Amino acid sequence: MSAAKGLFKKWLSNLDAMKKQIKERLNAVWNREAITEEEWEQLEETLIQSDIGPRLAMEIIEELQATKSEHKDWQSCLFEKLYSIIEKNDARLFPEADPQFSKIVVLMGINGAGKTTLAGKLARFFKDQGEKVSLVAADTFRAAAQEQLEIWAKRAGVNIIKSSSGTNPGAAVFDALQLIKKRGDTVAIVDTAGRSHVNKNLLSELEKLSKVIYREIPSSNVENLLVIDALAGQNAFLQAENIAKFIPITGVALTKWDSQAKGGIVFRIHQELALPIKLVGTGETIEDLFVFDPEEFVRAIVY
Ligand SMILES: Nc1nc2c(ncn2[C@@H]2O[C@H](COP(=O)(O)OP(=O)(O)O)[C@@H](O)[C@H]2O)c(=O)[nH]1
Ligand SMILES: [Mg+2]
User: Fold this and answer.
1) Where in the numbering of this chain does the SRP54-type proteins GTP-binding domain appear (predicted)?
2) Fold of 103-292
C-alpha cells in the first residue's frame, strides 16, 4: 500500500487540466490590485473545463473573490474549498467487516466501463494483503466474458469460479457463494455483465443477484461498487441515479483516470451523487489501481 501511495503521488503530479491552467491563470492575476470581470470569467471557464461542473466552479470563483480582498493567497483558499467538499470521503473498503464472513465486492456498470479489468486489479490488491481471493464470473451471457476474467485470474494468481453458460446470474452467484464458504475464501470479487442503466430487465436481474448476496452475507461485508469511466461526464450521474434505484451502491470506482484525466470529476461525483470515491484505475495493467486519498489528491491539484 505504501508503494502504491508513492505511485499515486507520481501519477497525481501528471494531473494536467486543473493544475497547470488554473495555476497559471491564478498566478498571473492574483497579485494585481484588481482582477477584471473578464478575467474572472476566463478563470471560471477554465474551472468548468476541468470537469468540476458549473455549480462548483461558481462557488470557487465566489470564494476566491472574497479571499482576494482579504489578501490571502489563492492556494490556501482553493485548498480549503476543494478539501471541504471531499474531506469526508471515506475510501476504506469494508471498514466494519465481520471476520466470520467472506467479503464480497460486486462490480457493476455499463459495458466497457472497466469492470473486468478492475476485478483483476482488485484480486491482486486483496491477494497482496494476504486474503484468499476468488473471482466470480457473473457475466453468464457471453463466453468471452468468462475467458477475459480467466486471463485476469491467472495474472492475479487467484481462483476463478465460472458458471455454465446460460445460468442466470443470481443462481451463478448463489452457487459461487456456497463454494467460497466451503473453501474458506475471504474475498470474492463478482464481475457482472455490463448493463445499460436504462434497461429495466437487466437492472432487476442485478437486483436479484444483489439480494442473493445479502441473504448470505451481512451488509458490512458487501461492497457494491459502481464502476465509472472517468471520461463519462454527465452520463455518469444518470448511470448512478438509475442503478441506485435497484442496488445500494456503497462506492464508486473511477477507471481510465490516466487518459486525459482532469480530476474535477471527483468533486462532482462526490458532491452530486453523495457517494464515496473508493478506487481509482489509472491504466490497463494489474498494478494501476489506487485507493483514493482525498487530502493527497487536493494537495496535488493546488500545490
Ligand atoms: N487506459 C485505461 N484503460 C482501461 C482502464 N480500465 C479498463 N481499461 C480498458 O477499457 C476497456 C474495457 O475494459 P473492461 O474491463 O473489459 O470493461 P467492462 O466491459 O466494464 O468489463 C479495455 O480495453 C481495458 O483495457 C484504465 O484504468 N485505464
Ligand atoms: Mg466485462
Assistant:
1) 276-289
2) Rossmann fold (3.40.50)
- 161-188, pLDDT tens digit by residue? 998 777 889 999 999 999 999 999 999 9
- Phi, psi (rounded to 5 degrees) for 291: -85, 130
Ligand 1 atom nearest 288 alpha carbon = 27
Query: Could you tell me if the CB of 268 is within 6 A of ligand 1?
Result: no
pLDDT per residue as tens digits for the range 24-54 = 888 888 888 888 999 999 889 888 887 788 8
Neighbouring-strand partners of residue 255 = 229
Contacts 24+ apart (CB under 8 A), 5-14: 5/290, 5/293, 5/296, 7/287, 7/290, 8/280, 8/290, 8/293, 8/296, 9/296, 9/300, 11/257, 11/258, 11/282, 11/290, 12/296, 12/297, 12/300, 12/301, 13/300, 14/261
Would the CB of 286 count as within 6 Å of ligand 1?
A: no
Q: Which three cell numbers stand for residue 85?
A: 467538499
- Ligand 1 contacts CB of residue 194 (under 6 A): yes
Q: Ligand 1 center to residue 116 CA distance, Å?
A: 7
